[in-house]
Design a protein that fits this description.
69 residues, mainly beta, four-stranded antiparallel sheet, 1 helix, 4 strands, elongated
Length: 69
Amino acid sequence: MVNGIDVTQDKDASQHYVFKVHLVYTTDEGEEKTALVTGKAESQEKGKLSSIEIKDDEGLEQEMIENSQ
């Protein structure tokens, strides 16, 4: 579940943004955890993303990979 999203526009390059997504999720064992996913996004056309780059996910992707095997 997304618990919040923070987006900041770059002052020098208006098409560049930095974002933080606050997540709450439940593991297969029923444990509730949180993760902060941060990254950069770019929009060349209003209302459309042209690129997105995840900088840090606090190990969430690796945890999902390990739990899917």
